[in-house]
Amino acid sequence: LSRKVPYFHKKEEIFSTLCEFNVPIFRAIWFVKMSCAHHIAVSESNIKTKKRQVPDPSQEWTISLCKFVKDHFNKIQESISGNVNSITNPLHMNAPQQVSTEDLLKQWNYYVELCRNLYEEQLLERMDYLVWALEIFEKIKSIDDPGLGLILSMLLQYIDEFVQSEELSRRLAF
């Protein structure tokens, strides 16, 4: 790492690896920034011959992170409700292992903290991320849903941003 920043082909691998090695958040943010810079450099070198606009990296990161966190949230819900006999560890795809709910919740906390810091560093598309978080909240149908506490704790971190948007405030109220 001191000589060369590792490169991952999938953004989801980045999130899993950061959590697996329990990388401090400020270093994780730095790594995401370096990965973003690398992706932009590769995109620009490929686009030089063609007259196209460079895609917005924050949009791509938002989509990847939202999909990854949503999949993880679904695994937690399945684990808590007991609907799945075996949940494989997303950090070790080659060797299926039983992952406890406690481990899934620790990973969830890391991912939520990473999301918050990426959001504050403006590495995520703010409106898209808030809409995504609100959509997950809207899909919870019962007050007894085990995922309600997880989503509410995540949403409360962004309450100041929700009240600044009339549309999001209305959606949150209903």
Task: Explain what this protein looks like in three dimensions.
This protein has 174 residues and is mostly helical. The chain has helices at 11-20, 25-47, 57-81, 101-120, 126-139, 148-156, 159-163, 166-173. The N and C termini lie far apart (48 Å).
Range of strand content? under 5%
Structural class label: mainly alpha
The average pLDDT value, as a whole number, equals 85
Approximate shape: globular
Q: Count of helical segments? A: 8
Number of strands: 0
- Cα Rg: 18 Å
Fraction in helix = 55-70%
What's the main sheet like?
none
List the defining traits of the structure above.
single chain, 8 helices, mainly alpha, 174 residues
How are the SSEs placed, and which strands pair?
Blueprint: H1 11-20, H2 25-47, H3 57-81, H4 101-120, H5 126-139, H6 148-156, H7 159-163, H8 166-173
In short:
This protein is mainly α and 174 residues long. The protein contains 8 helices and no strands.
